[in-house]
Amino acid sequence: MTSSIPAVGTRTAEAATLQAVFLDLDGTLVDTEGFWWEAEAEVFATLGHTLDERHRTVVVGGPMSRSAGYLIRATGADIGLAELSTLLNAAFAARIARGVELMPGARRLLSELAAHRVPTALVTASHRTVVGHMLRSLGPENFRLTVAGDDLVRTKPHPDPYLTAAARLGVDPARCAVVEDTLTGVRAGEAAGCRVVAVPSVTPVPPAPGRTVVGSLEEVDLPFLQALITESRGTVH
What we know:
By secondary structure, this protein is α/β, with parallel strands linked by helices. Helices cover 40% and strands 10% of the residues. The chain has helices at 33-46, 56-59, 64-75, 81-96, 106-115, 128-138, 160-169, 183-191, 222-230; strands spanning 20-23, 120-123, 145-147, 176-180, 195-198, 211-213. A six-stranded parallel β-sheet has the order 3-2-1-4-5-6. Helix 8 (183-191) links the parallel strand 4 and strand 5. It is globular and about 60 Å long.
């Protein structure tokens, strides 16, 4: 894959400018992490298995292939990965069809980024069909592009989704801000070289050098994201 990613290392004002913002979906912009767990519990109940709550911390924020594969191994369910993925997506789609709630601060942040014409991408491990449903609530006009979990061979925690978004927008990952709610997504953004803001939802995200952790999207606005790029070194909040 080729891209027009500019060189890094200049000390000009332009080099300290935020070029793009990459936003995760489930648990970050929309309050749906609980929906995924409900869908998983429902499907496995039909297969004769009760999911233990401890499994939830393992599957949260992960790609479908990893989460479904783990649950098959953990329960010993007699089902293939492809069939299970289809059932899980259908159960999840049935839930979001009834409507989803945006996370506090999400609508305001999207409107602010759009008003200032900041290139914004939706980068998620959810499948393309789910993204299509979600865009009805989020507003497709708020995103320059979307990267779904089934668009790539490798998704989060690999850096591929964020590197792909940066390449398609022609921007430098080091001058992009990523907003994520899970450690899986945070690691993907960090591996891509982006500046990452963690807004934990279901499970905690520990502080680390260069990682900013906040309690809600209500703490995140354009000046906040710009400051991440202009800082010479990462700061743990």
